[in-house]
């Protein structure tokens, strides 16, 4: 999972500032690195580095990045090390022009393609699966870049929300199953593309529609052109609804917030238990916890407080501080949980380490009973479609039964939402459920 933004403007020469705030809104989709590329009168300029949006772009850099077309990326590492060479956008120059490209997703057949391209003299600068795409476009570009993009996307197998920029066009593309999100908006007279609609709200742009699965949109001085080439039906990632996306976004016209509230309500209907309070594991457990409380009639309370200012690169505590129980990320609101029968709602259990620590903290704060309710089914399979999910051997639900997990984390009861319940909450059947069911729209090989 990563985040992308692209904008085409006929008049504005400072699109990088719009991209900056769009990326800022998408920061939850990746914190490893960020970058912006702009078209400055036919010259592609860019800046990218490791870190968060506000850490990477100084006022001087933003002043330098002038142009009327631009794309931006924030990276969540699925493939490749944490290095600047693996930051996006990727910017390439080739015989027929220049291209900048930013990708959210995964190219499943990249090893084979890279091998073939390298055999033909192709040069790669990063470890990214993404890099085969600009290589293929450069190779296929004869008369029109659109045709080259179509051919390149037909050659790769995988998932993508892509934004690409030439010196006179902004191009957006969504994979044939629509596993990855991409939305289209208008910012005054200008077209804008973003992974999530919350980016439009942040900058004051208007949401127009989602880019359809398999659709390519080309925006230039003649306006917007849509090419539908390779639609295979809709299978958007269900984990966007459960966890990834911001609750104030709409994906495929569905409100993430309402889907999470509904998941909490379904969970309360499926797995009722008597208790004094419902609390949520911050942040993505909070909304289903509210839904659970509404449906069950058991009051919702704040039970866990998260430090919102912990970046990725905080200094690890010393052993002494760790033993003293230093709570860097999360602390318990003892006033609310002491002596209470607590229902703790979380969005998912992946490795099981976070929830185990949270339960210990709740016990130490005097919770009398702890009932864990998970607003998604057990994560049983790894994802090869763009989420950095652990190998199956590290997925706790793939290795242990529900009873064993309940005992390991030390709770009075543990229940998951059923897949049927989650799909009902999300408002449809048409989702990728690979990591929950083993049924992926795109195979590994
Ligand atoms: S396997 Fe899971 S995380 Fe990966 S795309 Fe499908 S639903 Fe999303």
TrEMBL record:
Upper taxonomic lineage: Bacteria, Bacillati, Bacillota, Tissierellia, Tissierellales
Binding positions ([4Fe-4S] cluster): 237, 383, 432, 435
Name under which the protein is recorded: Amidophosphoribosyltransferase
Membrane-spanning segments: none
An annotated Gene Ontology molecular function: magnesium ion binding
Cofactor(s) the record lists: Mg(2+); [4Fe-4S] cluster
Family per similarity comment: In the C-terminal section; belongs to the purine/pyrimidine phosphoribosyltransferase family.
Signal peptide stretch: none
SUPFAM superfamilies reported in the protein's UniProt record: N-terminal nucleophile aminohydrolases (Ntn hydrolases) (SSF56235), PRTase-like (SSF53271)
Binding site for Mg(2+): 284, 346-347
EC number(s) on file: 2.4.2.14
Pathway: Purine metabolism; IMP biosynthesis via de novo pathway; N(1)-(5-phospho-D-ribosyl)glycinamide from 5-phospho-alpha-D-ribose 1-diphosphate: step 1/2
Protein species of origin: Tissierella praeacuta DSM 18095
GO biological process, one term: purine nucleobase biosynthetic process
InterPro entries per UniProt: GATase_2_dom (IPR017932), Ntn_hydrolases_N (IPR029055), PRTase-like (IPR029057), PRTase_dom (IPR000836), PurF (IPR005854), PurF_N (IPR035584)
């Amino acid at each position: 999972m990563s985040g992308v933004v692209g904008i085409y403007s006929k008049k504005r020469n400072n699109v990088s500032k719009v991209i900056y705030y769009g990326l800022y809104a998408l920061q939850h989709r990746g914190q490893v690195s960020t970058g912006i590329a702009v078209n400055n009168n036919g010259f592609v300029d860019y800046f990218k580095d490791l870190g968060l949006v506000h850490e990477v772009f100084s006022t001087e850099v933003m002043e330098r990045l002038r142009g009327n077309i631009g794309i931006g990326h924030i990276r969540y590492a699925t493939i490749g090390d944490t290095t600047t060479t693996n930051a996006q956008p990727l910017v390439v120059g080739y015989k027929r022009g220049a291209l900048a490209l930013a990708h959210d997703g995964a190219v499943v057949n990249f090893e084979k393609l890279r091998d073939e391209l390298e055999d033909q003299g192709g040069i790669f600068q990063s470890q990214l699966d993404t890099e085969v795409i600009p290589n293929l476009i450069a190779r296929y570009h004869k008369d029109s870049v659109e045709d080259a993009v179509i051919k390149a996307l037909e050659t790769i197998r995988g998932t993508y929300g892509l934004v690409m920029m030439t010196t006179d066009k902004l191009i957006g593309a969504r994979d044939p199953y629509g596993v990855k999100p991409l939305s289209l908006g208008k910012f005054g007279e200008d077209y804008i593309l973003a992974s999530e609609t919350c980016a439009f709200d942040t900058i004051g742009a208007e949401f127009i529609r989602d880019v359809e699965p398999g659709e390519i949109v080309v925006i230039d001085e003649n306006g917007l052109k849509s090419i539908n080439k390779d639609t295979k039906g809709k299978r958007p990632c269900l984990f966007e609804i459960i966890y990834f996306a911001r609750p104030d976004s709409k994906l495929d016209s569905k409100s993430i917030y309402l889907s999470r509230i509904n998941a909490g309500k379904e969970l309360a209907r499926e797995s009722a238990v008597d208790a004094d309070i419902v609390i949520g594991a911050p942040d993505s457990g909070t909304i289903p916890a509210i839904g659970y409380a509404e449906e069950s009639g058991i009051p919702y309370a704040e039970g866990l407080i998260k430090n919102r200012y912990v970046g990725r690169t905080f200094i690890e505590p010393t052993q002494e501080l760790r033993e003293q129980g230093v709570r860097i990320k999360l602390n318990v609101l003892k006033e609310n949980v002491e002596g209470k029968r607590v229902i703790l709602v979380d969005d998912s259990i992946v490795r099981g380490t976070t929830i185990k620590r949270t339960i210990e903290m709740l016990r130490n704060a005097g919770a009398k009973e702890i009932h864990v309710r998970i607003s998604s089914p057990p994560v049983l399979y790894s994802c090869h479609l763009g989420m950095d999910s652990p190998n199956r051997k590290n997925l706790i639900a793939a290795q242990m039964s529900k009873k064993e997990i309940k005992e390991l984390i030390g709770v009075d009861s543990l229940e998951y939402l059923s897949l049927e319940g989650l799909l009902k909450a999300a408002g449809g059947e048409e989702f990728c459920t690979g990591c929950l069911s083993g049924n992926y729209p795109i195979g590994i090989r």
